[in-house]
Amino acid sequence: MSPRHASTILRPPASLGVIGGGQLGRMFLQAAQRMGYRAGVLGAIPEGPGSQVAHWSVVGPPDHLPALRSFLGQVDAVTVEFENVSAPALRWLERRVPVRPGWKTVWVSQNRLREKTFLARHGLPLAPWRPVRTEAELVRAVEDLGSPMILKTAASGYDGKGQVRVDDPSNAGAAWNQLGRVACVAEGWVTFASEVSVVVARGADGEAVTFPVALNRHERHILDSTVMPAPVGPIVSRDARDLALSVAQALGTVGVLTVEFFLTAEGRLLINELAPRPHNSGHLTIEGAVASQFEQQVRALCGLPLGGTDLVSPAAMVNLLGDLWKDGEPDWAGMMRRDPGVKLHLYGKKTAAPGRKMGHLTVLDPDRDTALARAIAAREALIRR
Ligand code: ATP
Ligand code: MG
Q: Less packed terminus of the chain by CB within 10 Å, N or C?
């Protein structure tokens, strides 16, 4: 972001644009609209989750100049819902309007090699890793990390895509072939006790806030459930929130940033990866926190003071993947009848492929374990028998 935008406050009904038309963009748009902004989207497809709810939308790839020009014609400020936006496109926009987070945060977090190099340079704790760009580096990684290790493509992975676990060193070459021998990072396998994440919001003035730590459980490398606050104790909680603040500070992020961690049995936090945006593990802040992660994204984008991150109640979230549609439309009414306290979020996706994130459920409960149990039971109740 150029300094001339630093102190701008954008008041409603200014027009806010998000690059990316998926569910994260959709929830950003909804938060912006609730606060009186005009809000629109630059998305690759018409009628995606974002454009369905947008005041305006531009269809086109995010690094396509004609699409960017027409997007620019509509916006007073720009944010992103995903990290795979080209840095030149963001820089081009940044010369004209506030873009938050700025290109640097996005550029670092869109590539695992850059991300890990950056974090290591700032002395932040990481799982052991090695770059893999050549055969020689692959051999070196296998020697240094042992097995199991995990090979991840440096660019454009999500929900466990672009990752192969290597259990036997002699399979490392085959694993890399499977990934197309593109630039990768190799990571030592972490036998974590749990996975946690922290969503941080940082304003243009450098003020930053964190949400309570989220406890995340993955299935098939895809987030399955989140509970907040995580049952990790005050010291780990403080450490995780401080580390997330350090990352945002080091990157100079203005906007929302999420830090995913592995937590080892000895209570060590290792950073797994960054997302320069709201995160699936923060969806429960919509009902669970004073201001949601999406509201923080709006506030940071507009130069407004950040909102409260305290929880109004412990909360749990479970994802609804396309698999739930296997035998037809899930039983929404049956689920709601069973537990009237469950909040349903659907993203408006037309086709329910296995592993595709279609929506989520949130439950608030004074007891976080009960919140999670109720959310899981509600999801079970969606399956027709
Ligand atoms: P997303 O964008 O959905 O967070 P991703 O594709 O970027 O996912 P990662 O976060 O790197 O992938 O990995 C997904 C999950 O796979 C992790 O949350 C963790 O459960 C498991 N995993 C990844 N790396 C390791 C590792 N080094 N050791 C053990 N488990 C791992
Ligand atoms: Mg991840």
A: C
- Distance of CA 201 from the midpoint of ligand 2 (Å): 19
**Res 169: pLDDT:** 93
Best residue for ligand 1 mutational test, from 215, 221, 259 (most atoms within 8 Å of Cβ): 221
* Percent of the residues in the chain that have a pLDDT greater than 70, as a whole number: 98
Is position 223 within any domain?
Answer: yes
Same domain, 370 and 223: yes
Pocket (CB within 6 angstroms of ligand 1): 127, 150, 152, 157-161, 187, 189-190, 195, 218, 221, 260, 272-273
* The pLDDT of residue 157: 75
Write down the pTM of the prediction: 0.96
Number of Cβ atoms within 10 Å of the Cβ of 74: 17
Report pLDDT digits (tens) over 142-192.
999 999 999 999 998 777 789 999 999 999 999 999 999 999 999 999 999
CA–CA separation, 275 and 260 (whole Å)? 8
Closest ligand to C-alpha of residue 127 is: 1
The verdict on 253 and 362 lying in the same domain is yes
Q: Which two three-digit tokens encode residue 96?
A: 């004209």
Does residue 74 share a domain with residue 17? yes
Q: In this structure, are strands 38-43 and 56-59 parallel, antiparallel, or unpaired?
A: parallel
What is the mean predicted confidence (pLDDT) over 339-345? 98
Q: DSSP state, 241? A: H
Dump pLDDT digits (tens) for 27-42. Answer: 999 999 999 999 999 9
**For residue 218, which atom of ligand 1 is closest to its CA?**
20
Question: Is the residue at 105 inside a domain?
Answer: no
Same domain, 335 and 349: yes
Last residue of a domain, one of 165, 188, 211: 188
Tens digit of each residue's pLDDT (9 = 90 or more) over 40-72: 999 999 999 999 999 999 999 988 999 999 999
Residue with CA at minimum distance from ligand 1 atom 27: 189
Q: Is residue 306 part of a domain?
A: yes
Does residue 112 fall inside a structural domain?
A: no
Q: If you measure from the C-alpha of residue 158 to the centroid of ligand 2, how many angstroms do you get, rounded to a whole number?
A: 7
Distance CA 5, CA 180 (A): 42
Say how far apart CA 196 and CA 273 lie, in whole Å: 11
Check: CB of residue 161 under 8 Å from CB of residue 353.
no
Which residue from 163, 167, 271, 281 has its CB within 8 A of the most atoms of ligand 1, so it is best to mutate? 163
Tell me the best of 166, 272, 281, 360 to mutate to test the pocket of ligand 1, counting ligand atoms within 8 Å of each CB and taking the most.
272
